[in-house]
Amino acid sequence: MFVGYARTSTIEQQAGYEAQLRDLRLQGCEKVFGEQVSSVNSKRTELESAIEFVRDGDTLVVTRLDRLGRSVGDVHNIEARLAAKKVGLKILDPAIDTTSATGRLMMNLLGSIAQFEREIMLARQREGIAKAKAEHKFLGRVPTARRKSDAIWSMHHAGKKPAEIAKALGVGRSSVYRILAEAA
Asked: Is-catalytic flag, 38?
């Protein structure tokens, strides 16, 4: 049985997510697990569910290697867990199937290259941020809750509880407490 797994890093990537679902169904996946979470520092509950679901002789199918994991170690761990269950891993682009020795070799090579590219990109990003900070051009993200301080205070004076204020304004409850504490 082919079992699919689709993932995008954010919910804003809807077109990419739908394209993955389409491609997995076209590949013949009878069941597809999908989620829209970053693979970095996030629990991928649907991936875990897919790994638990697959049985001896099944194949887990993903559209691209980067949809499965961000590092070689992460991908190796997933592949090892699948291999322990006698489950294959198939990546559609590029065509890699770990049920063969060549497929396993290609997956290791491409995983190493992907990790290398990511590390180079992150190093460039850090350099760019450092340069922008040195030139006083990097100010960071504008705090969302701080822009809503007046509304937080007026809702607080109207008798609203911090949880209600946070929900109404779309900010974190801890931000509401922080703004109230700073002004007190």
From this structure: no
